[in-house]
Structures
1.
Amino acid sequence: MIFDWFQNIEFKYPWLLSLLLLVPVIVYEYLRRQKRIQSSMLVTTTHFIGTSRSIKTTLLHFPFVLRILAIICLVIAMAFPRKVFTGQQTEGEGIDIVMCFDISGSMTEQDFKPNRLEAAKAVASQFVQQRPGDRVGIVIFSSLSFTLCPLTTDHNTVLTQMQNIESGYLQEEGTAIGSGLATSVDRLRASTAKSKVIILLTDGVDVGGSVPPDLAKQMARQYGVKVYTIGIGSEKEIDEVVNSPLGHITQKRKLEYNENLLQDLAQTTGGQYFQATDNEALKKIYDSINLLEKTKIKVTEYHRYTNAFLPLLIAGIAFLLLELSLRYTVLRKFP
């Protein structure tokens, strides 16, 4: 309990706490003096008499203990302990950002480490942490689209939801880029932010959906939403192990990638198109977007203090008064 109290306390005059070093000296001197006073010579005719105890002998050292406690409390009170409450005030113009993830089966391709989706999540998480003051939301899509996290400044929630994204989350397979983009635009439609951004991450192979990409693109233009498209992957060939009547064999397979669609979406909405071919390239892309979309945020940190010396001061005075009352009543010495 005392340890927890000190963890939340700051001292205005911490150097005064050095006076506590005198306490061991005072205790040592008191014990040395008591030993000198109590030293005596054993008398053979009285050694068989038991030591008699009274209230005075029982409380003999109690006033000294009270005085030590009083000194400790008063010294700590003099150091002016106070509780600190730290807060932040944010002023300026943030950006509303929707992270739109393709979670279709093609995002499990392992041309990225460990795969496309996991690499995208890792880099996107770093990006979110670099955007203090911005509202961030998450939309995921395959053949369907879904708002996983609405726009919020609670980035811990965003990061938690992002880590929960998995391929097959929406069960139905496919890649409906238009539906994912339309849902993202809808999240930003009522936004009053001066800058509204969608970061669309996909391999760009659209297989149709309830909203065609052209319509979603026009929606983005109408509501002033910029779309940054990140094409993750390439059309290179990879080795793939497949089952055959002869057992497991390795064959070449060309990866799918639609660069033209992603370029068109970005160009029409005033954003930019990027292609990521590996983990490092993906990180550089997010760094570039971070520089392009500047946030005008001023964060002011303030501290509020609550004095905590009064209980210690009262305790110190109480210990002193109790010591004096004992010395001049129960433990009073008569000449």
Note: The longest strand covers residues 81-93.
2.
Amino acid sequence: MARNEEKDSKIVAAATHWAHRMVTNGVPLADFQDVTNNLSSWENWCEAWMKRGEIHALMGEGSFFAGQLISASEHFRTAAVCFHFGKFLFVHNLIQMKEAHNLTISNYNKALPIMTPPGERVKIPFEGRVLYGNLRKPNGIENPPIVIMCMGLDSTKEEMYTNEAPFLMRGMATLAFDGPGQGEAEFEMPIRFDYEVPVGAVIDFLEYRNDIDLNNIGIWGVSLGGYYAPRAAAFEKRIKACISLTGPFDFAEAFERAPALTREAFIFRSHSEDLSSAQNAAKKMNLSSVADKITCPLYIVGGALDRVIPPDHAQKLTNATSGDVTLNMVEDGTHVVNNRPYKYRSQSADWMAENLTR
């Protein structure tokens, strides 16, 4: 095992800052420790996680052919999240990134129909193209309310299983989707600041279904999705309640202090030519001129120890909106409060249930 001083600084940063997120969202702790303890170079990051994901994928295939569908779903889902974290910030090597990207999707799609509750892969028409999403509905509830889930800069719908669970357990459906610049849309469509447009397309798609309560639509967004969700709620009045999870109020400010890998990911996913172009794109992502248009109830989560999004951004959004606002500032919480999920996940899910079912 390489000593920390011999390791690439990016591996050291990964081991220090990503453990909570990856484990909270489905990577076994032992896998995280094995991979990060035995890597010394960032160049080997994606390959190492693909090898780890393949272990779980093979176990999934074995369980599936043995008819052990619960186990198969668990293994395929774990494989998918390992592949996802192999590629999520590995934007400098497109060959490896796309290979891991495809493995993420294929394994999660194997898990989706045999999950409990099961999920459905949906295709959402959008400006002559398609956005892909995973729709899951709670068992035993006809026409449930639904929570639309907006991804962040480096998250995708395949990372959302543990985030969906609190809503599903409380009788709400979930629709996690990859918007422009995210997951299955990141190669063809750049990040866009006016996220009410793709969210509007998602709601238009839902209106063609007869198994969802269209009068009770909530929206949830994580990290950069914590900007997207309130931005959409400001314009899309079909949304009844909104959760913003450690999102930026002014992304240009957050971008300047973001870790190098995060800046590189934004340059790539905004389809920017260089850092200057990316900075200009980031300037458009600012809630100051639209927050007062948010009239639905809003639940804001902040992490006082957040090194990615300045913690005062949660307070800025709280002060700027004109509707009913709840601020949950977790004093010992890091970015997305992945180190203390018990201090916001159940609380925000209860809040959403109260707003969508009353």
Note: Confidence is low (pLDDT under 50) at residues 1-5.
